[in-house]
Amino acid sequence: MKTLAAIQEAVQGSPDGQVSMWQVGEKLGLERGVMQDLAMDLAGLGLLEVKSLSGKVILTEAGQAFSQGRPSPAGSAELDLAGLVGLIETGLEALGLGATAKQNLAIDLAVLRGQMSRSERLAPVMAATLEAVRQALAAAPKPADPSWIARLDDFVQASPVR
Asked: What digits encode the pLDDT tens for the residues 22-73?
């Protein structure tokens, strides 16, 4: 969410709405390779669009909404879940989890990504995995963003199997 917010802030002074992902990354203290990977992940989630090979990016409508904590304009639960998974993956290191807990959470996030890619999701797998991710975030030594847990609760409640 920091990256999207930083891009949103940088866009304010840009006449064409484009900003350099490299400058945003530098402002956030990220190495170029990390920023490039992050930008590609955000683009894959539909939150960011890469406009040029020189690293100019813009936030999509969904990215703007997401950076401001609003639901996506299309109201897409899938985009919101994909975006949330991406945010958790990005913030994984900051949670202070031990190696096993971090690995388990990363696996659970990969399971959610896999389920989102299926033609038919397995409701029991989704429900159990969402709950496992929620519990891992709640138990993290360093607090997770409370909005992540709240949004996970929404997805758990919306799941057809509880």
From this structure: 998 899 888 888 888 788 777 776 778 889 889 899 888 877 777 766 554 4
Question: Rounded to 10 degrees, what is the CA torsion of 131, 155, 42, 45?
Answer: 120
Instruction: Count the Cβ atoms, other than its own, within 10 Å of residue 63.
Output: 25
Q: In the chain, where are the structural domains located?
A: 2-67, 77-158
Q: Which fold has domain 2-67?
A: Arc Repressor Mutant, subunit A (1.10.10)
Global pTM exceeds 0.90: no
Using CB atoms within 10 Å of the CB of residue 160, give its burial: 0 to 12 exposed, 13 to 18 middle, 19+ buried: exposed
> Which residues make Cβ contacts (< 8 Å) with residue 44, sequence separation at least 6?
none
3-state secondary structure at position 142: coil
Residue written as token pair 């496992």:
132
Per residue in 65-112, pLDDT (tens digit) is 777 665 544 444 444 788 788 888 888 888 999 999 999 999 999 999
